[in-house]
Structures are given as structure tokens and as C-alpha cells.
Amino acid sequence: MATVSVHPAWLPTDVWRPIGSRRVRVDVSGTVREEVRAACANHGGALITSGHADLIFALDSADGDGYAITREPHATTVTSATHAGLLHGLFATVRLGEAAFTPAPPLRSRPAFARRMLDHWDNVDVHPVMGQVERGYAGGSLFWRAGEFRHDQLPRIRDYARLLASIGINAVALNNVNVHTTEAHLLTDRLDEIVLLSEIFRGYGIRVHLAVTFAAPMLLGGLDTADPLDPAVRAWWEVTLAQVYERIPDFGGVLVKADSEGRPGPFAYGRTHADGANMLAAALAPHGGVVHWRAFVYNHRQDWRDRGTDRARAAYDHFTPLDGAFADTVILQVKHGPMDFQPREPVSPVLAAMPGTRLALELQVTQEYTGQQKHVCYLAPMWAEVLGFRPRGAEGATIAGTVAEAVAVANTGDDPFWTGHPLAQANLYAFGRLAWDPTLTPAAILDEWLGLTFDAGDGLRAAFHAIMGESWRTYERYTAPLGVGFMVRPGHHYGPDVDGYEYTPWGTYHFADRDGVGVDRTVASGTGFAGCYPYPWSEVFESVTDTPDELLLFLHHVPYTHRLRSGRTVIQHIYDTHFAGVAEVERMRDLWRGLKPAGLLTPELYARVGELLDEQVRCAGEWRDQVNSYFLRKSGIADNRRRPIH
Ligand code: GCW
């Protein structure tokens, strides 16, 4: 049971009324029955074992974690082959509300991806730079505070597991992929904490995974090497992981960030990433565990003078030669874009280039580069574009049809609203729903979330759609233009700093000079990145006239006077979109001011969103003015509408 001050997110008590006010039979023991029991206690219904039931939950012999809901005049029946599937069926019934009890054709649903995973970037200790949660914008960690496990938070963690289960999440990595010394011990002498968490998550059909450091055999085992082909190293992992399985029989496996941003990895021993990942897979496979191996590998110490090195190519160059070399139980986890979770990037070419490897698509729900949960930025439209992208053209498969799994970096913490910005809850909700069914539309998901969270009527719904529906594109308009990315303040990544990364080793440049801007990634004259795509995208991206406007500067260096497909020049597009983006944010704030707190739109939530919208207006204005002034000064070309630029 949550403490009163914690917001119920999309599961307020009232969403249980349609179930809880009826006579319900649950033919299995466990979480479904306990949820139904609680709902009936709150809403006057009854959990019964005999006699007429309005709603029945029963196991059947179908396969997998899907469910079926049969709505007949006298009763509704929810069936699945597994407890987890029945739980998903329960939450689907919650989403249907009263409609679950109106006769209708049978509804069958199966998840598109067998594993739908959330990665926490939580630290145990407070990291001197990154804090308790790396790129966390929702307070502290739910699991640890200042080095200590949060025993006092177990009831809230249970509520959290329930929220995740209700959107179909079935795997959670508990700690940051940057595994520092204290966190490394979660695998061994602090395993008790993971055991406790696994007991809570297990009840909701969620398996726990741990991020581990590749150097663990040295750090924890006292060995003098972590060479994946060294027998003592292999033996250490086998024994250590076997001990984990003694305590956590359904332990999901490990997540590894290796040879990336200073993390240890197999390169130190002249071994490949397949050697490293397969070694861990061999230790896990006998127990049914998997390895999530991140493809986020690039040179973060590059010389900015060196135009030949292209960070966008790095994952492709490192991993595609290894296609087919990874064990079956290794999942290569690939960020959706080739750089790093920018508001606009092309889909990573790695996702289309490794047919012999199990791939996971990695999304970032935490809003590192999309307003840090101070800005409204509903990300489902971006993710839907990524999932629906067809690397081989209209006749080819989508990304959703290509990858094996969907993974996302969590945006949650111990904030009373779970996500800092209350409206950022919609992003977590949308990730879960899209990972279950990538064909759902962002607008339909938003509607679902609004219905549950606010019991929103038509007026409120329309206002929320107007504020949130296009908010990702709005964010794109007032920040870095035309896909060029990374004009953020280095380090914390909030707010504008056009040249902040320009002369740094991080590989994220825009190359603006007095004549033009953008990165030439063509085969003909640039880094060759466009050639990493299959046909037709290799040709589309190679061509400065065919490249979609929103990606132009990601792929081409063009003069400010270059005409976009839209007909506008690049410089005029920059001015126009930045003025328009801020005007849209002002309109969002005004719409919000026009609402009145009532019902589930509580005064606290209303006030929090209002304050954050003020900050979004301020920050968007700063973006507009810095970006516009920068390009006016570089180019010397005036805005054709002579609006104020500084
Ligand atoms: O986006 C970058 C972040 C790092 C993060 C890294 C990664 C966990 O700035 O904070 O480290 O990506 O994905 O590994």
C-alpha cells in the first residue's frame, strides 16, 4: 500500500471499480487473486469460489504470456497459459473498465516482444558527478539511498512493480550500467538486497537483472585479469553466477557496458566483444539467464580536429563484423539512433545490419536530452516512428519486426509523482504499451493513459492532447535544428550551448562556420555513414535533395541558403522553427492555466505542472535566443521577418 503522499499514477483506486464491484472467481492463487481481493474489498464486490461469477480468471492451455478476454452476456472470462499472462489479462480488464462487461467478440492479445525491459541507472552510493541516479530527474532511487538499501521503501517498491506489470514490463535491470565499486558488490556480498527486490518483482511477473562490471573477477574475485578466455576468469563467473541462482532461481541475467566511456571490457585483452559476451552467456545459460550486451561503444577521446572519425559509425563498425558470432542467449542492446538519444536521429543502421544476432532496441524514457522532466515532451511519437521504420524500404520489415526485444532507460524515482514531471508518467506508460504492441498509435496510448490517470472527460482530454500530443516535435523545433543534435550544455545536458561540445573529445560536432552547418556523412565526400544503410536508405541519405529535412544536418553539410524540401532556406527554417517552438510552449502553458484542478487533477499535480511549464517557457526562450543569435552572427543573414534576434 502506498503512503498517501505518493501519486497513484495510472492506477488510482477508482479504475478498479468495474472489477471490484462484481462477483469474481479467480481459479489460481497468487497476485491476480490478491489484486481482485483488494479491489472487491474497496468497491463492494466479492471474491467467490462457487456460484455465479460476473468475472472469471482461469488458466488454459494456450501458449505464452498472452491472454484472452471472452465477453458473454452472463460473464466475462479472462484466460492465459501462465500466471504472468493472467496478470496482463487482469490489467487489460482494468483498461477496458465497464466495457469489459459488455458482450463483444473475444479479445486476444500477445506481446510483440517476449522481453519488455526497463533499465534503471540507479547507483547505490551517491556518485560525485552523476548523483544517486545517473540522468535521473525524479528524485532519488527507489532502491538505494546514500549507500544503503531502502528497506523502508519495500511497500512502495511493490507499488512500483505493480505499475510496471500493469503496462506489460517483465524484466528490470536494477542498477546503473556504469557499475562503480560499491555497485559491483550487488553481485556478491550485497546479493541479499537483490534477493529482496526479486521477491517483490517476482510477484508481478518481472524478472530482475543486474548490471555488472566486466572487471568483476579482479574487483571482487582478487584475480589479476578479467580476460574472457582465461580459465580462472571463466570459473569465477560460473561460480559467482551459480551462487546468484541458488538465491534467485529466476534471475534474469546480466547487463554489460564494456569498453564504453571508460568502462572495462574485452579490448584490454585483445579479445572481441563476442568473446566477452559469450563467456558470460556460457555461465548463465545453464540457469536460463541471458546477457544484455550494449552496443554503445565509441571513442570518447577523439581529436575534434580529426574529420575522419565519425561517432555515428562506431557501433556499426565495432559490431557488424561480429554478426553471427554471439551466442543465442546474448542480446545486443542497441540505442535507437547512432549517436545518443538526441531528440532527432536517424534509426541506427546496426538494427538493420545484424540478421544473425538477437537485438534489443534501447530507448531512453528518462529525458536526458529531451527536457529532463522539466519540459513536457511526450515521446511515444518518436518511438512509434522508430518502431515503424523500414530500413529496406516499403516492402521490407519494420524495426519492430526486426528486433527481438524492447528495452528502455527508466524515468522513475522516489519523487511523489514517480517521474518528477507528472506528465512524464505518460512516457513510461507509453513505453510499456508500445513494447507490448508497437502498432498502437501514440494518440490512442495517450487517451488510455488520460482515461486511467485522470478519468478525463472530453474537455480535459482535448486540452491534454493539445498540450502533450505534439510536444516532442515542439521540443525539436526550439532546440538543435534539422537533426544536428548536441547543442546542449556539456555535463548535465540541460538547456542550450551551441558550441558546448564543438571542440571537445566527445565526437558530437555541428561544424557551423560562416557559410554553412552540418556533418557530411555521405560516402561521396564525407564519413561514409550513409553507406551503412541498406538500399533504399543508403541512397536517400546520400542525396542532399532526398534526405528528409528533419535529418538534413545529421547527414549533410550545407550552406545556410540551401533550400529544404519544404522550400525554405536552412537559415530561415532555423529562425522560423525557433520562434514557432517557443510560441507553442507559451500556448501549452496558457492552456494549462485555463484548466481548473478538480477530481484526479489534484491541486498538487496542477501546481507542479504549472511551475514546470513556466520553466519550460523560460528555457525554450533561452534556446530560441541562443540558437538564433548564434546563426545570425555566424551567417550574417537576417531573418526575413526581422523578429528580435540578439
Ligand atoms: O547518454 C549517455 C549518458 C551517460 C550514460 C551513457 C550510456 C549511463 O550521458 O550518462 O551512462 O549515455 O548510455 O551508457
Give a summary of the structure in a few sentences:
It contains 19 helices and 20 strands. It has 646 residues and is α/β, with parallel strands linked by helices.
Task: Describe what this molecule looks like in 3D.
With 646 residues, this protein is α/β, with parallel strands linked by helices. The protein is built from 19 helices and 20 strands. Helix 14 (458-468) packs antiparallel against helix 18. The longest helix has 33 residues, at 603-635.
How much of the sequence lies in strands comes to 5-15%
Structural class: alpha/beta
CA gyration radius, whole angstroms: 25 Å
Report the bound ligands by name, code or SMILES: 4-O-methyl-beta-D-glucopyranuronic acid
Largest sheet: 8 strands, parallel, barrel
Mean pLDDT: 97
Number of helices: 19
Range of helix content: 25-40%
Strand arrangement within the widest β-sheet reads 7-12-13-14-15-16-17-18
The end-to-end span amounts to 54 Å
Total strands: 20
Low-confidence stretches: none
Shape: globular
